[in-house]
Amino acid sequence: MAQFIQVLILGLALGGVIALMGSGLSLVFGVMRIVNLAHPSLIIAGAYVAYWAFKLWGIDPIVMLPVAALILAGIGVLLYRLMFEKEAKSARYSEMTVLLTFALAMMVEGLLGAFFTNTQRVTSPDYATDAFFLGDIFIPKGQLYAGIVSLVIIGALALFLKYSRMGYAIRATTQNRDAAELLGVNVNLVSVVAFAIGIGLAGAAGALVSFVFSFFPAKQWEWIAMLMSVVVLGGMGSILGTVVAAFSLSVIAAFVGTWVGATWSTMTFFLALFVILLIRPEGLFGEKPEMA
Amino acid sequence: MTALLEVTNITAGYGDGPAILDGAHLTVVPGKVHCIIGPNGAGKSTLLKAICGMLKIRKGDVVLKGERLNGLRPDQILRKGICFVPQERALFPKMTVRENLRMGGFILGNAKELDRSVDAILDRFPILRERANQHAGTMSGGQQQTLAMARTLIIRPDIVMLDEPSLGLAPKIVQEMFSIMKMMSEEGVTVLLVEQNALMGLKNSDIGVVLDLGRTLIEGPAADVLADPRIQELYLGGRKAA
Ligand SMILES: Nc1ncnc2c1ncn2[C@@H]1O[C@H](COP(=O)(O)OP(=O)(O)O)[C@@H](O)[C@H]1O
Ligand SMILES: [Mg+2]
To answer: Residue B94: its chain A contacts at CB < 8 A?
Structure first.
């Protein structure tokens, strides 16, 4: 029983960060129908921001989080302007954006590798290797803090989407772009803002990831599959779905890792992606894909 | 009576494609229900899209209260007081009824004024008040169409354009939609609708417009249009609707 609770807690502790990693991907897909394969590489870029700030100046990665988010959001605006704006009217938009984000993922990995090498890194504030103990059960502080910060950020995002004027515009554009435009929403501006927020969330997730997982540029390939399975299970474009899926898969992966074997833990995500696409492609909270 | 909106001999099409409208004209008088009829593919929807700024007008004029609207974007035309409900109704399925209504006043900017407006509409449509917190996508077709029409009223428009509001609705519900349109026109909102069922559309309207092959064929009081022999020919004999 104690072991069961221990594994459950470890799974839950990681669920929050994974949800944050996936939320930006989900938002960008919802508004722009872009499957941003470069999302994990941008998370890693955010992780390097936090890593070097800690290494060079001893700045806590959680303190560095807003900075990483802003830097990445700025990069997001640039990328949108350079890569996607003129594609928006293209009839081959979906193929083009998949190819573009794939190319971007390779490029970001190459650049990060050139600057920072392929050495495994991890930011190491004191709490990253510390834990709380409740009797026999331990809760790693780093994962706990990262999970709590992630949930706070996702909560803020949800409130923003639910109540702000821009939030209304983003949701409306996600659900019916033409209708939003007819009602006076500047959908182009909404796209830039949503993309910037999405990439900013990658930066924020990166700062947390930097002390929860070890990372290096090519780590993105493992995370792509993990995040894809999370956002697909959640129903592409649904933030709530992303959160629920992240926690579910993270807990399942923790149990698989303990009882079946560590290598099978990551396989959980790949297998889940495959099975979800086969039996319920619209995910838990998404709409049925149109059969046109 | 002076015209509220005057459309004179416009030519318009999609992108660089052929002209779909060529010689369409229309005079919209305040406070009346206008019904555009015509065979499938005549260009009825295209005409509404051209008026609301979704298509470029290549020739001719669209003039609202003396002001030329050619070349304005859809949101600018909306601000001028022309509201368009396309055939697909343009609702946000995963937003609540109240949120959909708030989107109707997106251009208002002032949140307090918007809330008052939304509440006034909910008071007038009890069925929407009852479902205010329900997702629009979970409602019946008639309720969704009611929501789409009610949503146009948030900004107090001069003209509401409806593309086939009766589409997919049971006859009894269609009658309800026509009563809402009548109520709107009595309150001073001019209605311009496209209707597949010519007979039903004309019977429920004040003014009829017949469009065929992208141009206006007949325009006049609905009763006169109904009695026009060309209508019989267009709908009963000769060329069948596609
Ligand atoms: N998005 C579009 N792109 C190109 N052609 C279109 C488009 N929509 C409609 N058309 C063409 O315009 C013509 C008129 O269509 P429409 O205005 O929808 O007719 P109606 O509403 O009277 O049935 C048709 O020949 C149709 O094929
Ligand atoms: Mg039509």
So the answer is: 171, 175
Query: Is A291 contained in some domain?
Result: no
pTM for this prediction:
0.90
Range with the lowest mean pLDDT among A4-8, A284-288, B77-81, B134-138?
A284-288
Longest dimension (CA), chain B: 56
Cα-Cα-Cα-Cα dihedral sign, residues B29, B35, B36, B37: negative
Q: Which residues of A touch B163 (CB under 8 A)?
A: none
Does A199 map to a domain? yes
The nearest CA of chain A is from the CA of B122 a distance in Å of: 19
What is the pLDDT at residue B235? 72
* Number of domains observed in the structure of chain A: 1
Residue A97 belongs to a domain: yes
Domain of residue A113, CATH code: 1.10.3470
Q: pLDDT tens for residues A203-257? A: 999 999 999 999 999 999 999 989 999 999 998 888 999 999 999 999 999 999 8
Alpha helices in chain B (DSSP H): 44-51, 74-79, 97-104, 111-124, 126-130, 141-152, 171-186, 198-203, 222-227, 229-235
Instruction: Flag whether pLDDT at B242 surpasses 80.
Output: no
Per the domain annotation, does A79 fall within a domain? yes
Q: What confidence tens digit (pLDDT) does each residue in B150-196 have?
A: 999 999 999 999 999 999 999 999 999 999 999 999 999 999 999 98
- Give me the residues near ligand 2 (ion), CB cutoff below 5 Å: B 45
Q: Where are the domains of chain B?
A: 91-155
Q: What phi-psi label fits residue A133: left (phi over 0), alpha (psi between -120 and 50 degrees) or beta?
A: beta
Residues A172, B52: C-beta atoms closer than 8 Å: no
* Contact across the interface for B52 and A179, Cβ inside 8 Å: no
Which is the closest atom of ligand 1 to the Cα of B87?
21
Contact call for A183 and B104, based on CB within 8 A: yes
Q: What residues are in contact with ligand 1 under a 6 Å CB criterion?
A: B 14, 17, 20, 38, 40-46
For A91, half-sphere exposure in the C-beta direction (CA atoms, 13 angstrom radius) is 0
Ligand 1 atom closest to Cα of residue B44: 22
